[in-house]
Structures are given as C-alpha cells and as structure tokens.
Amino acid sequence: MVLRGAPTITDTERVRLRAAADPRIKDVFANGLANIQHIRFLAPPTIEKHDNIKNKWRDFVDYYTLEALHAEIVVGANMVPVHVVKAFALYLALGVRGQIRATAAHRTVVQYLSIFYSCWRRYANKEVDNQLRHQVLEYLSSVDFTSMEAPTKSVREKPIATALDLDNIIRFVLNDTTIFRTVRARIQFIGVNVLAALSGERPGTMIESTQYRRSNKALQWGDVGFIIVPNPDDPAHPFLAVSIRFRYVKAHRDDPKHYKTIYILLRPRGCRAECFVTILLYLAFRDNIFEHVASPDEILAPRFPPTAKYHLKIKDSVKGQSVFRGEELGEDGKWDTSETTALSATTHNVDLRKVCMAMGLLLCINMYWWRRLAANNFENNMTEAQRDAMLNHAPQVSTFAIYYQAKSLTNDVGGILFEGEEDSDRVKMAQTANSIERHEGAPTRLNVDQLAELEAEPELVAMRAQIAKYKKEVLDAITSIKSVDDSLPDSDELIASLHGVLRHKRAQHDQLRAKYQLIFNQEVRLRVKEARQQFFEGVPERQIRGEAAPAPLPMAIARPPLKDKTRESVQSHQPRIITSGGKENTITKTSFLANVEAIDPNARLCEILYRFPQDDLVAETEAAVNAYLGIPERPFAPCYPGESPTEDEKCPGCGVDCSRNAFRNSGSTTIGSHIHACLFAAQQKSVQERVEDAYVASACKWSGCKHENDIFAERPEFVEHVQSHILTLRLAPTSKVPVRACQWALNGGVCLEEHCDDWEKHFASVHGFNIRHKVELFYCGICHEWHVDELGDRLDWNGHQWDHYDTQYDQFAVRPETDVDLTPIGVKFTAERDAVSYAPGSGLGGGHPEFHGDIRLGVANPPPHCPWCVYNTMLDIEDRMRQFFSNRDFVRHLEKHIEEIEDQEDGHQCPVPSCGPTKFTLHEFTFHLIAFHRLPVCGGTNHTIVRRLNLPAPPAAVPVEAPSVDLAHLEDPPLTENASLTWEASAKAARKERKAAEAEAVPGYCLGCWKTYDDIGKHLTKNSGKCREKNRYHILINGAKSGPPQEWNLTGPPPAITFGRGTQPKTHVCLGKCRKRYLDIREHAKNPGNCKADRFCIAAKVPGQKATKGPPLSVADWIAEQDRGAGSDPEFVQGSSRPKRKRNSRVDSDEEDDDDEPGPSQKRPKVPEFRCNNCSKNFFDRFELASHFLYLKKNSRCKDKVFRARLLTSEDPTRVWSEAIPWATSLLNPENTMEDGEANKQA
Predict the structure, then answer these.
(1) Axis-axis angle for helices 367-381, 183-199 (nearest 10)
(2) Rounded-to-integer distance, Cα 1015 and Cα 1003, Å
(3) Cα–Cα distance between 1062 and 27 in angstroms, integer?
(4) Residue 486 burial (CB < 10 Å; 0-12/13-18/19+)?
(5) Residue 829 to residues 451, 455, 836, 837, 887: CA-CA distances in angstroms?
(6) Which is it for the CA torsion 117, 122, 123, 125, positive or negative?
C-alpha cells in the first residue's frame, strides 16, 4: 500500500470543499461582510472588567448633570471630552472602595481609566488620543486633584511564606480529621501547596482559576510524565523523575509558545511528607493511570533493571483527566472525588483559610505567598533570566523587585561582621522568627458568651419574633384549607384561593428566615475576626505574665488533648482488662482486649512519613505510597479509646457497614456506640467461653442434696443445680423448715449463713466460686478499662468505683449549714430565657461536683452520673456510681427521680450536699438542676460545638391553647375547669394516680417467663404471648414464693402488638427532633412543647419482626387527605385511636335503617384498598402500599411493583379488584407529579 498523501488540489477547490461542509463559510462569500463590526476575542476575566467599568460609567452619567452624555459605550456614541474624563477620574477616586485606605489607590484609578479607554476602542470604535490621556494623568497629579483627595501610592503588603510555614501546615493537615471530607482531598491539598512552593506558579496554572470558573481547565495527567532513568550505582533501583508541563500560563493560556516544563525528583530520605513525587505517585495509582504498572515497587524496584531511559505509558483514557479534582455528593449520600470536575482555586483557598485559622496563625496564607517564597529561592540560586522565565515575567521589567523580592533578610549579619561567615544555627533561628506567628487556642468560632450576646441583639430578636409570627400565619392558613367543607359548590375555588394565600405566607416566612440566617452568618464572621484580633493583641501580655489563653473551664476529668502524630510516636490505645482471681480476690492480672486492634490510619501514616526505620530511600518511598493508598477514603467516626472500624469501614464485631452515611438515620445509635456495644458482646462471649473451658468438674456439697454424689461435668449444669438450692433460701420459712440457711459444706461443717441479700456474692466470697450464669463484665468510661468479675464477688469493680467516688465526689459529701452561691457557672441564657448554652467538655472549675459528663456523637468520655444516686448511701457503690453511656438513658433515669419528688408538698433540696440547705419549689429545683448542674431534665441538643439545654416552662397558669391543626374530627372530651392546671399541679396529679395504681399492685412470680414482677396482674393482662396463655403465677411475700400457683382473672381479648404502652400500635413516627411515636400524628400537634416538624412516617409492625419505617410524609398533606375522605367514609385511619366524625348531619327519615348498613354512630369495619399483585398482601391506604414497594429486597418476588385497586362499583359482583396497575406509572407513586385530588380520584 502506497503511504503517500491525498492528491494535490488547488486553494479554490479546498475552499469549495470547506464551504460545502460549513454553511457559515458559504454565507460569508455569498453575502459579504459589509456593515459588520468585528471585535477580537477576549478572555472572560477581561470581559468582567469591561462590564464593571461600563457599570461605573452608567452610574457616573446618572450623577453628572452638567451636560448630556451617552450612558452606553456603543458604535455611534460621541467620544467624551477631556473635562468629562477628568470628572470621571475624580468620581472613581472618591467612590471606589480601597483595600489599603477607604478610597482607591492612585494605581487603581489609573488602571480603571486604562480599561475605560479600551472599552471605547472595542465597543464604540473610538480611539482615545494620547493628548487626552496625558491631560488626565496630569490632572491626577495636580494640586487641584490631590487637595480634594490624595490617592495613596503605596501598595499592599506582600507577605512571604517560609519553608517552616509549609512544614507546619503539612503536619497539621496530617493530624487533622475534621476539615476534609475525604482522604484524597487532604493529600492533594498538601500536593497543591507543595507544587506551588516548588514551581512558583500561579494557582490558575495548576487548578481551575477563579477568573475562569466552570472552565474545568487545570493540570491534567496528559501534562505529567514519569521518567525512569537507569542508576549505574544501583541498577536494581533506578532513578525516578517527574516532568510537569504548565499550559495555562497567565495571559498566554493554551499558547504552545509559552508552555513551560519543569522536572521534580524524589526528596532525600526522611522527607517523604513534603515530597511531591511521592504524593503524585499516590494520586496516579488512585486513578490507575499507568498502562503497564500496577504497584509502586514495579517503578522503584522493577523486576528487570532498565538499561535505557524511558517514559511510563499513561492510558489515553485518563490523559484529559485533571490531576487535582474536586468532590461531589454521590447518590449514596457519600462525598467522593469527582471523576471529571477539576479542583477550583476557590475551594482550595477556602480550605487553606480553614487550616490557617484552625492552626492559630496570625495571618491566613494564600497561594501567592508560596509563589513569592519560590521567587526569592529562585533569586538566590538562579540567574536573572532563569528567574524571570520560571516566574513568567517579562525580561528587563522590575516586577520581581517591586512585588516579589523579600524586604526582610534572614542572614546572620552579626556573624558576617565579626566572624566573617554566617552561623547556620543563627540563620535558622532568624528564619523561625521570620515565619508567621502561630498560637494554639486562637478562636475559630464564637464561644458561648459571644453567641449569646449575638443572639440577644435587638434586631435579631425582632426578626425571630417576626419569623414565629409568619410561621403561625402559615399554620393558620393550613387550618383554613382543612376546614373547608368539600360539599360546598364553590369549595374548589375557595381552596385554590386559600392555597395562594398559603404560598404567599410561606414565601414571606422563607425569605425572612433566609435573611436572618444571612445576617447571622455575616455577624459571626465579623465577630470571629474581631475575637482573633483581640486574642493576638493579648499574646505579649499573657506571655510575659505566664497566663494561659482564655478558654472554657475544663472538666475535672476531661478528654486528653490530641497528640501531634508527626512529632512523636503515638501507640494505639488498647483497653486493659482487669481480671479478678483467687478465693479472696486478691490477685489481679492485666491483659488486653482479645481479637481487637484499634486502627489509627493517621498515626500509621505519620510513623512512615517521619520515622521510617530503614535507611533506604526506595523502601521508604514504597512504604509511604502504600500507606497513602491504605488510608480509608473517609475519616473514621469518633469511637471510644482503643476502638475503631476496620480498614473497610466495617464493625469489627458484627461486620455491618460503619460509614457515616449508613448511620445517618439510625436515631440515637451512632457508629461509636454501635462498635462499643458489639465489642462488649464479643468480649462477654470470649470471657464466658474462657470460664467455661477453665471449669473443673465438681460435685454438689449441699448438705442433704440427693445429687450429693453426682459429678457435674459442665459449668451450666452445675450453676443451674446450685441456683436451685439458692432458690430455696429465698422462700419464706415453714413449720418443716423454720430457718432458711446456707447448707454448703465449709471447713468440715456446714456454712449455716442465714441473712444475706446477695447469695451469689456470698458464694463467691465465702465458698470461692461463681454461681452466676453469666460472668459479669464491666466497662469504665472514665479510665477506659474492662473489668471481668470471674469470681463473682464484684470486689474489684466496687473498689474501682470507690476510687472514682473518692476522687470526684467525696470532697463534696458534707452539706454546709449556710447558704451557698448557686449562680450558674459557664452557661449563657438565650434571649427568650427558654434554654441555656454551654461548651461541651467544659466544667465548673473544681468548686462543685460535675455530673453532666461529655457525650459527643454517642461516645461518653467521660460518662455522666446521677446526683441522686451518687450521694444515696443506702445504695451499693455500683449503683451509686452508675455510668450512663447515652443521653437517652440518662434523661430517662433523671425523669424517674423527678417523678418521685413531684408529689412532695414541702420544698425540694438539691441532692448534692455542697449546694447547701437551700430549698426550692419544683420549678426552681428543675431550673437549678439544668442551669447549675447542666442536667438534661427537660431535654436539649447533642451538638458538638455548643450544647443547649431546655429550661422548664414558667410556673404561671397558662390556659390550654388550641392546636395548630384542625382536630374537629377527633372526639375530644370537653374541657373542664381544671384545664388550666399549672405545670407543677398537673405533674403532681399524674404522680398521685401512678402511686394509687402501684398501691394495688400484687407482686408475683410468672411461670410463663420465670421472672419476678412487682405487678403480676399488669404483666399478665398486657402480655399477648405465652405468659397470658399459661396464666400461672406464684404470689411473692417478702420476695419469696408463697402458696400454690394461682390464676389471674383475665377479661377481654389479648392486647394488640404495640410499640409502647398503648393498646393500639403507635405507628406514626415524628421525623423531627423528638422522634416520638403516636397513634395518630395529629396528637403531636396537641402539645405545644413538641418539636415543630412537618414530616412523619408510618411504621409497619409484623409480629416477631422488627418494625420497618415507611417513606417520609407531609403532616399537612396527610391530614388534609384524611379530612377530605371523612365526609363519606367514617372509618378508622391507620393508627388513629378514634373514629372520624361525619361532617354532614344526617337527614331525618321515616324509613327504618337497614340493620346491615352502618348508621352514623356505628363504626364500619375497615377494608383494604390495595393488593400487591405478586404476594397478594393487602394494604389499607397508598402510604402502606408505597412503604411496601420502597423497602423491597433485591430478590423479592414483588420487584415488578404491580398492584390492584379495590373497585368501588363493578358490573360483575364477583369482581372485587381492578386490573394490574404498574406502580412506576401510577399517580399514587409519590415520585410522580400529582395533586392530592388526582391521587384521591385514582384511589
């Protein structure tokens, strides 16, 4: 085959071919280019500058009234005279806001005028002559101009970063786990800063420029080359060099004549953290860019040593992919690195500012600081021509001297003068002094006091009140829509008009709320800036006086500060296990949690980057790249010390997904609490197996036992047998057995111990073995130790608890006789006085005991304690020092104590002795517990920055307010004269009712579940399982069984399966903050103290299975739909506890009612409206149907999602269901756009 080109054609023939392919070319030669003005293409940043100056010119024309001027610079506009241009120059000098002074600098005004002249040449085709330019410049320097406004000729300070600043930033980022969402974002952040400091390039050359937003133009893999060079000294380990070609040079983007290529080599050993080649290798292997290489060792230690220089081949499919890329939110709710979007300079600058503020730097670094650092390094090591070429400066222009050259020198001038040479240590000290001032503890956000001061601003208080007013108007509009009678002839028009009002009210509410949030955020930024300035101004005084930086009072037992993993080796914490042993429990041995290894990827990475043990550059580089690649993509969620997910973000106990997205809607369960619970169960199982394996076959030594000679080979059999003897000790004495005493053999005789509250502890301490079915395991959240009670006497755990009591609370156990100052410490009240705020982790300064603990993201470190139990000497120490590991359990426990004191008539004294003899009313006492002791008695938030606790409602009599939604269809009892009971009185009344019910309770031992109950009747009545079916129990007297088995008088059908205490399933779940369950979601609106959520879901409960939640629903839409169907069908709605009322009154008739037809006061049985076509399961409304199709398993037979609807009328009386309807196209599907009326029609 001949490899020559195509046949030669003439120019005219080539033009004809091009014109035939492009109609625009044909149109040019057919119609010509007459009367068309052409302007050259300009970059978007230049167009933005032109638009800016044209806007200023329009404003000037409106302000300048001496003569008529053209506001638009277009073809045909007259060129303005010189005196107008002078006036415009003065207008710019006075009006433009400056960055150095209040007004613009002299150079800024000159630049604006230059752009102004360019606009006349470009858009009006008018060339500004040199005489006009000269006259305007002369005017800017004249006395007439400078006497009115003298623009400054100074330039902004151009700070220069140092290598020490870069090292500090790298170390901080490697330790940080809060600023960056993914590991790649964290590593490439370091890479961008290192590359800028190495090359001196502008940010727009490496990442997407701020002037070219959404252009997606940045450094690509096609611009990077990996060059392998043979190493004659060590052929097995060749040299690696990286070439980087910069194409997006300022003013010459995508111009091949101005492309620039630099080469970067591996840094020496011990410098892996700042080595750009190592970071680039990590990014390359993450993106899988190489054609023939799959691991770092194939590059750094190839199987066959190279004999010639060559370039690693990069896949063609990734050459157009950006090296540094941004993040995007995936469909699974996780943040991942985008495959197509380049990292923008805006995003990088924001992250750089966050890092600098978190580090406590006096000034925030920007990317040009690295450029100036590189420029001065080039000045010291290159010729002037090389320096200008590296910085893309025009030759013979003093740009470097004006804007880049360092004005502060770090040379050892004293050494040069006196010793004739510089001392390297003194030079290094001078460089340290020249670096940016840094102080840890500099504020990055407003503290509790500052936030409270901001929220109390009158303007913001007024805006919050107006927002609340608009919100009430929205609720009133919704109520008006629901109250419309559907039977009226003009109901549709009325509802449409009311919906228009509702949209208007909602728009008002949303706009004001957005405005409030904008003002609030702006104020926060300004006040943080002022707070940082005040902090740094006070540094010299604090340093001289030896004072610490201002900070909240720490807790007596606070979380330990995080260590710098780049400067010291951090061993992963392994929780100790304290195991009791020996008859008297005097021997303790320490081990570590079996089969559990806490993973700290940052510590492992820093250990390799800064403390690699081998003196081998290749091995160090390979280990660093592999360590980068081995880090999980997202930071781990907070866990207890010594606990963490696995490398692939799985639970080490059960293997479930422990990513943040998987636990987003898991309620109170967090990743840390889930892993801790799984490890607790695993450790419990391990301990139990160890005890079972160590068991030695034993015989029963109970005097008179008929199995006295039997040998029990297994521990469960032996324990069960001994427990049967213990059961006899708990029975009441009889005539045959007048004394119940221990009959176990002891020292050649019998024990004969009669009085014992804990027989398990008796056998452990006296007879030396554990008769508990399960070996007890305890975890201390204060010192993070596991305590295994193998012996069963709990002496070790109790002694440990006594140690904590003596340290934390014993010093406050004496109640003073005089009053004590109980002013709240470290908390701030909101402007509405309905809550208090404090910083998590802060304490009371050591003057008072601290019970509130610190629970963040489900991790209690330290856990809270109950003040009532701590100082109750009637309890055992294990109950007094009970540690709570969740806010929910802690609040429920506190509520029990509050209930116990509600019916007390006299004053309430704080259970903490150090609070003195002061007595409070119930409201004052609750207020004291919350504001002073920080106990969440009335609930609060779980925020990690500022925690807020709700205060009790005022004790004044408040009449019951009408609910915010229409509840006319509910048969509520009429209000009585006691409807306006105060909070205290209503609480006392409820408490008395509970007391009366408890007084009638009969204690008993159930023979169905073999458990003891304080109220056996309540247990058997409420139970719907085997206990009710068997209905047999023993009466308990003084804790012992008495008499033969009894039967409880059960009346009525067994109770329905419930979620709580109701007789019907509480299937309506609020999706707001409260997460409460209701029989009907309309009950949620009855209580003004509930959250204001407008969304809920309907849960489905199947006997024997866990409840599953349905899709989120709108409360207003659901209630509106139920109300619209109430007039024609008075049946129960799902979860409703009462039937709907008929809105239309019944018309009297002489005819008798048919007995088969339900009357208006009868309840018609509910029938299913829909049926799944595959599984034939029935559903009562479209919400149940939607929930069924939403939560299908992958291999479910219902995956086709087809259903049938009940026919209201049918010619065939045997036909009940419609034809099959696809769910995907049905109007009942919430994903399809529809109005509620259309959905009802189809239903």
Answers:
(1) 40
(2) 5
(3) 82
(4) middle
(5) 10, 10, 4, 6, 21
(6) positive
Check: CB of residue 261 under 8 Å from CB of residue 246.
yes
The mean predicted confidence, pLDDT, of the chain is 78
Helix, strand, coil distribution of the chain in percent, nearest 5 = 40, 10, 50
Q: Compute CA distances 1194 → 1015, 1105, 1191, 1198, 1200, whole Å.
A: 46, 19, 9, 10, 11
All residues at 6 or more sequence positions from 174 whose CB lies less than 8 Å from its CB, including other chains: 186, 190, 273, 565, 566, 602, 605, 606, 609
Q: Are 220 and 396 in contact (CB under 8 A)?
A: no
* Size (the chain), residues: 1243
pTM of the model: 0.66
Instruction: Work out the burial of residue 127: count CB atoms within 10 Å of its CB; fewer than 13 is exposed, 13-18 middle, 19 or more buried.
Output: exposed
Q: Look up residue 317 and give its two tokens.
A: 């499919």
Beta strands in 556-629 (DSSP E): 576-581, 587-592
* β-strand partners of 337: 327
User: Please, are residues 336 and 633 in contact by the beta-carbon 8 Å criterion?
Assistant: yes
Per-residue pLDDT of 50-90, as tens digits, reads 999 999 999 999 998 888 888 888 888 888 889 999 999 88
- The secondary structure of 901-961 as a DSSP string is HTT--S-EE-SSGGG-S-EE-HHHHHHHHHHTT---TT-B---SSSEEEEPPPPSS--PPP
Query: What phi, psi does 93 have (nearest 5°)?
Result: -65, -35
Collapsing DSSP to helix, strand or coil, 101 comes out as: coil
**Which amino acid does the sequence have at 1154?**
D
DSSP-derived secondary structure letter, 791:
S
C-alpha to C-alpha distance for 955 and 516, rounded to whole angstroms:
31
Token pair, residue 511, equals 């706009």
Q: What is the DSSP letter of 767?
A: I
Whether residue 192 is predicted with pLDDT greater than 90 in this model: the reply is yes
Token representation of residue 531? 């707070």
Sequence-distant (≥ 6) Cβ neighbours of residue 157 within 8 angstroms: none
